[in-house]
Amino acid sequence: MTPATNAPAFYEGKAKRLFRGSKGEILHEFKNSATAFNGQKKAEFDGKGELNSKMSAALFNYLRSKGIESHFVRWDSPNILVTRELRMIPAEIVVRNIVAGSLAKRLGLVEGAAIEPPIVEWFLKDDAKGDPQVSEDVLISLFDQKADLLKEMRTTALLVNRHLRELFTTVNLKLVDFKLEFGLDDQNKLTLGDEISPDTCRIWDSQSNEKYDKDRFRFDLGDLMTGYREIWARLVKVL
Ligand code: TMP
């Protein structure tokens, strides 16, 4: 469903198309596509765009109620996240509470061990290079990023982790890890951007450890939308 604008998308990524709205707003149209391994694996899932846009909106709202600002303005049916425009920082910040994913693979660790205190990792946002892991020093000295902004990103990401973990625990879900992106707003204020959804988080059942996130698609663990709908059905009761 294309948003009610005549202008073409000014950017198309793997999971979203971006349009300019009125009053400087950006319309993020969430697609039904899922990709993994830097686009090597790809499929379409009915209802994914709607669910991820709705969940992102609800989680940004929740974080705002806890004092964490984001680009979020409103949600438009069925799959549009309306936001303020940010100048994006070309880094992805990942917070990990439980060993999984690329951390387990890189260090040869068994999935599922608790990480205390949580770990923050940085990745360069560059598809052509496969989003390589980098250090803060690399971002500062080679990619022109400001140390104080990276420090603020780290603090905010850990605060987001605290609030989301608490929320997910109330509905019997474990927040294993997640990825955030930040940008600068028109006042040069560091602001949370992008999305927060089962595409960008790992979320397991608290008791069974069943995986409800995009790992279902990455590793053929079961129907993707069954997992996504399970997360949403639980969250919607408390959001
Ligand atoms: P990783 O274990 O593959 O490094 O992923 C860490 C977290 O980041 C996980 O919750 C999934 C999320 N993620 C993205 O949002 N986009 C990506 O391109 C990748 C690789 C991971």
Tell me what you see in this structure.
30% of the residues lie in helices and 30% in strands. It is of the alpha+beta class. Helix 1 runs parallel beside helix 6 (224-235). The structure holds thymidine-5'-phosphate (TMP).
What's the helix and strand layout?
Elements: E1 11-12, E2 16-20, E3 26-30, E4 33-36, E5 41-44, H1 48-65, E6 72-76, E7 80-83, E8 87-88, E9 91-98, H2 101-107, E10 114-124, E11 133-134, H3 136-141, H4 147-170, E12 173-180, E13 182-184, E14 190-192, E15 201-205, H5 215-218, H6 224-235
Antiparallel strand pairs: 1-2, 2-3, 3-7, 4-5, 6-7, 8-13, 9-10, 9-12, 10-11, 12-15, 13-14
Helix pairs in contact: 1-6
The structure holds thymidine-5'-phosphate (TMP).
Secondary structure category: alpha+beta
Tell me the β content.
25-35%
Percentage of residues in helical conformation = 25-40%
User: Spatial order of the strands in the main sheet?
Assistant: 1-2-3-7-6
Low-confidence stretches: none
